[in-house]
Specification:
Layout lengths: L7 E6 L6 H14 L4 E3 L4 H13 L11 H14 L3 H11 L5 E4 L8 H7 L3 E6 L2 H9 L21 E4 L4 H15 L1
Parallel strand pairs: 1-3, 1-4, 2-3, 4-5
Helix pairs in contact: 1-7, 2-3
Length: 185
């Protein structure tokens, strides 16, 4: 069993707008309250970097934290075509330098290469769900230049260790996450 001594590694999955990043932030809050070090390691960091480079070269504005999901899917496809393990290998290299007691990844989407790699590294998978109306309202409030769910079409092929529903109040979500994490200590 994974403990805070060996490191608690958590991978958060779900559709865009379900609350994955919020879950990561609430895990960070939970870790801080217990005096545990925390690190968030993005699997898709190369895609975020490339997206920023594309927008910069195009001399086009991109809001902080915004995702051009169509572009990022095309970039992921190109990287995986060149080397199917490219994102996983980059992730592993960055994971090596993460010395935190609690490590979170909140952007896993691929069940074929990336998910097995994270499992081999001791990550437990939390699937975040919410009703479609709530998800669409959250997405409408974001500044993403494009949206698509193609990259999450096989999300159900990643078997979660736990499922958390994020339809209600933030305090309810925080309580559900805390309860789950306390059970994993």
């Amino acid at each position: 069993m994974t403990t805070t001594t060996a490191g608690l590694r958590i991978c958060v999955t779900g559709l865009a707008g379900a609350g994955k990043s919020t879950c990561g932030s609430l895990i960070e809050e939970w870790a801080a309250a217990r005096g545990l070090s925390f690190s968030r390691v993005k699997l898709a960091q190369p895609l975020y970097d490339l997206q920023r480079a594309v927008y910069s070269r195009a001399n086009a504005p991109l809001a902080e934290g915004a995702q051009d999901q169509v572009l990022m899917e095309a970039l992921a496809d190109a990287m995986r075509r060149a080397n199917p393990r490219s994102l996983a290998e980059d992730f592993l290299a960055r994971l090596e330098s993460a010395q935190a007691q609690v490590i979170v990844n909140d952007d896993l989407r691929d069940p074929h290469v990336d998910a097995p790699v994270l499992r081999e590294q001791g990550f437990r998978v939390v699937r975040v769900r919410c009703d479609e109306d709530t998800r669409q309202k959250r997405l409408a409030g974001r500044s993403d230049p494009s949206r698509t769910d193609r990259s999450t079409s096989e999300l159900d092929a990643i078997t979660p260790d736990a499922v958390i529903t994020n339809d209600g109040e933030l305090s309810d979500y925080r309580t559900a996450i805390s309860g789950l994490l306390e059970g994993w200590l």
